[in-house]
Amino acid sequence: IMASPTNGSSPGSTTSPRGGSSPAGRRKRILLAGLVGLLAWWVIDRLLVDRRPIVVGLLHSLTGIDAPVEKILLDAEIAALTEINANGGLLGRPIRWEVADGGSDAQAFARQAARLIRDEGACVLVGCWGPGGRKSVIRVVEANDHLLIYPGRYEGLEQSPNVMYTGPVPSQLVGPGVRWLREDYAAERFFLVEADDLWGRAVVALAEDILGGLGCTVVGRTLIADEDDITVAVAAIVASRPDAVISTLEWPGTADLSRALRSAGVRPESLPVLALPRGTSLVPAREGITGVSTAVVAGPGLPAGSGPPAGSAVSDPPTDRPTTEAAAGATSGIRLWAQAVRDADTTDVRQVRDAMRHQSIATPEGIIAIDPGTQHTWYRVTVARIRSDGRLDAVSGGTAAALRPVPYPMTRSRAQWDQLAAASFRRWGGSWVPPRAPANTTLPPPAAPAAGASR
User: What is the 8-class DSSP label of residue 404?
Assistant: First the structure.
């Protein structure tokens, strides 16, 4: 007599008591486990991985006197951020930029900087142009232990632990220019034309120091405060018979000086003019720069040989639009920051700021790098002659290697440089530019920096 199975199944059945050993059962179990795993991964990913956009604050003057220059910088920064997003963003997150208008006014810059940090959650600010706007924003980022990337060339005489400066300073520009005048023209006697602003004062003071150290003679120095001063300057230049002129005027002023010298009978080959403006958006030939042997010194954005039309750049910006040295600095600043975010593997401001002090990138002009001691940028500089068609030809005097940035040149003590800046501040009534200039520089409160202070 055959005993029946106690579970009630037939003798030949392959089904387990719980129905789980059949192929269909095993597939169900595997599918269920997979779905549970996917759900768990999705929950963990949403809880532990931050997918929110990384916010970058772009702070420039969209209105006011500085708008034409700063809009070029803004375009370069947006193009660089767009390029990063197109390549997958940072840390698996997209970048969202918030644009704020400083309105060519220092107080507006400060308000907008605070808003970007407080309300928009920006993890970095990029921008500013004029000294008043920059200095007011520095107060905000220092108070919030934040980070500003400042892209333009400026007078130096400043250093903040909360700022990365990605444009050149006078110590990187004056020396190569003077060397060109000495080597190509055997210049010994110099006339200095000083723009009535902080840039002009700092550059002319450094030029005097360098020329004195070389045993050269400064035969004259003229401060240009208005158009009438150009006529006075030309008369003084003709009377003093210098071997070379160094001008810190912006391009309209340099054009006026060039035309006035030509009208006074100064032959182009007899008197070279070295132009060292703060703004590096080169004017076309129609502005009248040509006619006197004129050259310009700059960091990124000048060709190493016969180059593109004046005003274009060679710093490989992610855009086909004409740009400037400062726009190249803006592009490089964005890229250096992005590398720092990747290296730090976070957007935490302090960690990114520390990582950025050790960043470098390759450009067509060579390697540029943040100097960890000053948080300014190493640059190779070029001396280029402005041709009659407005294009640029490199001449001797440029540097084969990048130059170290020295915001406080060693020709004077830091206290002496601070005293020079403070004297200008007081002279202009608590502003960083002369009172006649548009109000993009008045600082609240209007107190001059003490000697030895960082600003």
Answer: P
Dihedral, CA atoms, 353, 355, 361, 367, nearest 10 degrees? 90
Supply the DSSP symbol for 200. H
Read out DSSP for 233-301?
Answer: HHHHHHHH--SEEEE---HHHHHHHHHHHHHTT--GGG--EEE--S---PPPGGGS-TTS-EEEEESTT
- pLDDT, tens digit (0-9, with 9 covering 90-100), for 60-104: 999 999 998 899 999 999 999 999 999 999 999 999 999 999 999
Residue range 378-403, pLDDT digits in tens? 988 888 887 766 677 788 777 888 99
Q: What sign has the CA pseudo-torsion 404, 406, 410, 411? A: positive
Whether residue 209 contacts residue 238, with contact meaning beta carbons closer than 8 Å, is answered with no
The β-bridge partners of 297 are 383
Give the C-alpha separation, 122 to 98, whole Å. 8
Residue 144 to residues 122, 123, 161, 349, 453, Cα–Cα distance (Å)? 12, 11, 12, 10, 19
To which H or E segment does residue 230 belong? Answer: helix 228-240
Q: Are 32 and 110 in contact (CB under 8 A)?
A: no
Helical H segments across 49-195, by residue range: 67-86, 106-118, 131-143, 170-185
- In angstroms, the CA 95 to CA 84 distance is 8
Q: How far apart are CA 296 and CA 274, in angstroms?
A: 6
Q: Left if phi > 0, otherwise alpha if psi is -120 to 50, otherwise beta: which for 6?
A: alpha
Pairing type for strands 125-127 and 54-60 reads parallel
Read off the amino acid at residue 318.
P
Give the tens place of pLDDT for each residue, 21-36: 687 777 787 888 777 7
Which residues are CB-contacts of 282 (< 8 A; sequence separation ≥ 6)? Answer: 251, 296, 310, 311, 324, 386, 390, 392
Separation between Cα atoms, residue 226 and residue 439, nearest integer Å:
17
* pTM above threshold 0.90: no
